[in-house]
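New to this. Help decode the following:
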Amino acid sequence: MEEYLASITTDDAACLQLLRMSLPCFTTLCNILQTNYRLQQPLNISIEESVAMFLWICGHNEVQRDVGLRFGHNQETMKRKFSEVLKAIELLAYDYIRTPTSQELQRIPERLQVD
């Protein structure tokens, strides 16, 4: 199964098609999640594999069981790794996504006013 992950994480086109992001973006995301959001790497599953499985589930609307079979992990491992990555993504979202204020929501962008 490591060869399968390597085929995704070394080929930009495969990464884009299967994980829905470019290889540099995927690598940066993995580094940010590990460095800033404490995503841990146990002995048997790399950060890259955990994030790839998460993105595959979300990007293809597949169930954890099917992705687990593809990557060679049981359902309990998939559930645990999905939850770990999801928690890290939630923390990342808190830092990167801001809810607009009511004043901002009331403003109509210029490009929409002329339509």
In short: Residues 2-113 form one domain.
